[in-house]
């Protein structure tokens, strides 16, 4: 009986050893992630939901916003080894909700207007060359093109093993006659795994991020100062060979404060947001 069990163990080891070697080789594999150009670009289906709670003069007010659209992204080589990114909505539907009901927003002025970005070959140091010219909703606020910034993931400078980590940071400014915005943010990323996903061999990237936004906007003829602290999480599936984002999921929570200078009133707000980009 002892010899039988011993033979079973030996046979099992014959199968386990190659398997362990394969796992070790997989873990020791280094991955060099980089964006690759595509002449006609590639499209994403985008969905976003936001829930807002605010307190004004002792009353709590809740609201929501739903966005759905299609995004075209074109990446090309630029001078000095840099990349040129053009991102635009090819379709967009947006609606807000409150206790008073739903309101559909006219998005016709938003569609087919391209945000142009110049970055390093890894998406680093992005410069948003025409962000201040991007159209806004007639109801005001920041341009819907701010959604494109989520797709500007900075890839690691060097090739990494599984569980390799890197940091990212960027600053964004927006100025027009109605809104002035300055945003600074940082992110911590991890190369979590390599897996087949949606037909591609993908690097699964997980990350956390924080950002601070401050600025001034005009609402119904009144000046409003705002300040926001945001934190969230993101998961990205990046096609290694194709050099594109296959899917991106993010969720965040923000504490925002509005100062209505004309009314000497401060309004605290909490905003939760979920976004999803899927290549198709």
CATH topology: Lipovitellin-phosvitin complex, beta-sheet shell regions
Domain unit count:
1
Low-confidence stretches: 1-6, 18-23
How many beta strands in the DSSP annotation?
A: 12
Q: Give me the number of helical elements.
A: 1
Notable features of this structure?
280 residues; mainly beta; Lipovitellin-phosvitin complex, beta-sheet shell regions; twelve-stranded antiparallel β-sheet; 1 helix; 12 strands; 58% strand; disordered N terminus
Plain-language structure description:
There is one protein chain. This protein has 280 residues and is mostly beta strands. It has a single domain (37-279), classed as Lipovitellin-phosvitin complex, beta-sheet shell regions, CATH 2.30.230. It has one helix at 2-28, and strands at 42-56, 59-77, 83-98, 101-105, 115-119, 127-128, 165-175, 179-197, 200-219, 222-239, 244-260, 265-279. Strands 1, 2, 3, 4, 5, 6, 7, 8, 9, 10, 11 and 12 form a twelve-stranded antiparallel β-sheet that branches. The radius of gyration is 23 Å and the shape is globular. The termini are far apart.
């Amino acid at each position: 009986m002892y010899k039988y069990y011993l033979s079973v163990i030996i046979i099992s080891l014959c199968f386990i050893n190659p398997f362990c070697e394969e796992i070790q080789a997989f873990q020791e594999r280094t991955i060099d992630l980089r964006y690759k150009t595509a002449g006609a670009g590639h499209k994403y289906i985008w969905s976003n939901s936001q829930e807002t709670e605010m307190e004004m003069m002792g009353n709590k007010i809740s609201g929501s916003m739903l966005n759905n659209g299609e995004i075209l992204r074109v990446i090309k080589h630029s001078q000095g080894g840099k990349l040129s990114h053009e991102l635009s909505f090819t379709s967009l539907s947006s609606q807000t909700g409150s206790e008073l009901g739903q309101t559909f927003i006219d998005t016709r002025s938003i569609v087919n207007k391209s945000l142009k970005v110049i970055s390093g070959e890894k998406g680093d140091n992005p410069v948003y060359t025409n962000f201040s010219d991007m159209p806004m909703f007639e109801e005001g606020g920041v341009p819907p093109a701010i959604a494109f910034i989520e797709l500007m993931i900075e890839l690691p400078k060097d090739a990494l093993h599984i569980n390799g980590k890197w940091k990212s940071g960027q600053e964004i400014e927006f100025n027009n006659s109605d809104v002035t915005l300055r945003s600074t943010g940082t992110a911590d990323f991890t190369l979590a795994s390599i897996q087949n996903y949606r037909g591609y061999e993908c690097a699964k990237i997980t990350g956390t991020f924080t950002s601070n936004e401050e600025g001034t906007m005009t609402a119904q003829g009144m000046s409003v100062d705002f300040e926001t602290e945001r934190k969230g999480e993101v998961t990205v599936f990046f096609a290694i060979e194709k050099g594109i984002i296959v899917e991106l999921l993010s969720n965040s929570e923000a504490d925002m404060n509005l100062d209505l200078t004309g009314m000497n009133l401060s309004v605290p707000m909490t905003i939760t947001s979920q976004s999803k980009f899927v290549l198709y």
